[in-house]
Amino acid sequence: MTKKTIIQFDHVAKRFDGEIILKDISFAIERGKFYTLLGPSGCGKTTILRLIAGFLEPSEGTITFDGRMVNKIPPNKRQVNTVFQDYALFPHLNVFENVAFGLRINKLTNKEIEPRVKQALHFVNLDGYQNREIAELSGGQKQRVAIARAIVNQPQVLLLDEPLSALDLKLRTAMQVELRQLQRRLGITFIFVTHDQEEALAMSDEIFVLNQGKIEQSGSPRSIYDEPINRFVADFIGESNIIPGTMLKDRVVSFAGKTFDCVDQGFDEREAVEIVIRPEDLEIKPHGEGLLQVRIESQLFRGVHYEMIGKDEDGNSWMIHSTKSARIGEEIGLFFEPEAIHVMRHGETEEAFDRRLESYEGAGHD
Amino acid sequence: MVKKRIGSTLFLLCVFVVLYLPIFYLMFYSFNKAGNMTHFTGFTFDWYKEVFSDKRLIAIVVDTVIVALLSSLLSTVLGVFGALAIYLTKGRHYKNMLLSLNNILMVSPDVIIGASFLILFTLLGIKLGFISVLLAHIAFSVPIVVLMVLPKLQEMSPTLIDAARDLGAKRLDVLLKVVIPFITPGIFAGFFMALTYSLDDFAVTFFVTGNGFSTLSVEIYSRARQGISMSVNALSTLIFLITLAIVLVYYFSTRGMGKVKQLSGGEDA
Ligand SMILES: Nc1ncnc2c1ncn2[C@@H]1O[C@H](COP(=O)(O)OP(=O)(O)O)[C@@H](O)[C@H]1O
Ligand SMILES: [Mg+2]
């Protein structure tokens, strides 16, 4: 454990009535960073937050906070505050009293409370809203009050459980930027839960991708997007073409009946693998040119780009994102760089995956 | 369509006329000089004067109000804790069982409750009178309070409690600063319901009273049996007006709360 680490999970498992919900979760959270727990609904994201906040006790393993084991410390004694998914504002108190709640519990004087509440409201752009009733606020404003109520206690870690999921798209995007700025200004750790991969990619320093109570992969948004460990992560984080292939030797892979140069290595000879190519990495060329020939089957206009589905001679479907359009039924060529190909080994653990990547990333490839 | 609405309005009107006519009939003759309910011979306040000069009756009114206030107050406290206990009970079956036990008390006939209390008090050697009436009223009021408070608790999002704990509140703080304020409308509703149930209870009180202690409904019953005096009408009129006043106060106070809630509902949509 380094000095920077604030929260650590060691082989934490959680069962409800004998049913295993989280299995063998280990990770370390550092000070001052923005973390995201990303995964489909029901995968255990909220359960992890509740373990950190102290509402739940792990069935196995240990949770440490600032180097101290906290498995049995109740929530009111932890330096962690939560922004709840449904905001959980107290309906009988106005905005000021909601934000002041934690300070009053800690027996601060009115003289100390007032400036801190005002500052917290200022942080979330709610100056002048002190005397409003909760019932008078819009969804976005309630959201901000919930954040102010949490940060006014100066926690070391702020937990946010899908705080933006109830907001409309425009407000959500604006709040993403604001939350990220708020985290930088406060300099504390944010642990943010979402099932929206775009949100996770846009906001985080580090993402934990969860599936069925397990961490599938953790890393920076870039590394998770570019180098997904398996089919689940590749599929969950953005659109991807996942095609079965064979690794012929280091840096040579075959799929769709052809052989291609790539940048991956460390596989067995003739090992069956899956390759991933992102739709935006496919470039449209005239028929006969490029590396693969496909026939366009469908096309959608997506605003910034066209989304096309093409079939190659082997029967594989390819999703293509391009600003150029093509006609349905048209034969086109596809080109992609060796770096665009990402090779995935079946059933590889995250540790082995990281070790393999490290072994050759130093060698000048990316 | 319009015809149908007129029809249903007329029907409602008839129902209310039938329900209220006897009360107004009784009220009307409380001003009758003749002192009976057959011929109205002239207007008088005599019967009201008789009510107010009847020392025993005034004492009974005071007793009745004391029993009602005390029993509804104590049963509100007990009922709130009962509702909290049911709310916090883990396990669906156990919870449903507790709730059913509560509801059985609500629906069982007063006669049975009264008789069983009489047996209990005699067994325990509790002297029949003020204490026995008070205990019986508390007992039949608690389930009412539970029934009024429990829905408010269930309406409360459990994350509200989590949020308070998260902000550092100890269990007592959570109860006093979050839960109780949230369920206050339910507590008031329960208190007023208990108050009216206690004020107009006859059957249970009839069983467990004794040693000269009496409440209004029991007293009116025994006086009515000895032949109708128009002072009974006058007293009934007064009780009716007081009940009406309580209902109106309750109506306007809850309407104020309802408005705030409507506002929040509208904003969310
Ligand atoms: N208190 C509980 N008792 C029993 N099962 C629970 C409880 N809390 C959560 N679960 C189960 O644990 C799983 C993960 O839940 P949760 O952590 O809320 O998922 P997420 O937040 O990722 O949607 C779900 O299948 C849910 O039904
Ligand atoms: Mg959740």
UniProtKB/TrEMBL annotation, chain A:
| Top-rank EC class of the record's enzyme | translocase
Q: How does it assemble?
A: The complex is composed of two ATP-binding proteins (PotA), two transmembrane proteins (PotB and PotC) and a solute-binding protein (PotD).
**Keyword terms of this UniProt record:** ATP-binding, Cell membrane, Membrane, Nucleotide-binding, Translocase, Transport
Q: Does the keyword Transport apply?
A: yes
Query: Recorded GO terms, molecular function?
Result: ATP binding
- What role does it play? Part of the ABC transporter complex PotABCD involved in spermidine/putrescine import. Responsible for energy coupling to the transport system.
Q: Respond yes or no to whether keyword DNA-binding is given for this record.
A: no
Instruction: Tell me its family.
Output: Belongs to the ABC transporter superfamily. Spermidine/putrescine importer (TC 3.A.1.11.1) family.
* UniProt signal peptide: none
Q: Which CDD domains does this chain map to?
A: ABC_PotA_N
Reading the lineage from the top rank, the first entry is Bacteria
Q: Per its record, how is this protein called by name?
A: Spermidine/putrescine import ATP-binding protein PotA
Catalytic activity from the UniProt record: ATP + H2O + polyamine-[polyamine-binding protein]Side 1 = ADP + phosphate + polyamineSide 2 + [polyamine-binding protein]Side 1
What region holds the ABC transporter domain? 7-237
TrEMBL record, chain B:
PROSITE patterns listed in its UniProt record: ABC_TM1 (PS50928)
Keyword Cell membrane tagged: yes
A Pfam family matched in the record: BPD_transp_1
Top-rank taxon of the source lineage equals: Bacteria
Q: Identify the CDD domains for this entry.
A: TM_PBP2
Which chain regions cross the lipid bilayer?
A: 9-31, 57-88, 100-124, 130-153, 174-196, 234-253
The record's section on Gene3D superfamilies has: MetI-like (1.10.3720.10)
**Compartments (UniProt record):** Cell membrane
Q: What is its main location?
A: membrane
Topology within the bilayer: Multi-pass membrane protein
InterPro entries on file: Bact_Polyamine_Transport, MetI-like, MetI-like_sf
The entry's keywords:
Cell membrane, Membrane, Transmembrane, Transmembrane helix, Transport
Query: Which residue range or ranges hold the ABC transmembrane type-1 domain?
Result: 61-250
Family, according to the entry, reads as follows: Belongs to the binding-protein-dependent transport system permease family. CysTW subfamily.
Protein name in the entry? ABC transporter permease
This protein's species is Sporolactobacillus shoreicorticis
Q: What is the lineage of its organism?
A: Bacteria, Bacillati, Bacillota, Bacilli, Bacillales
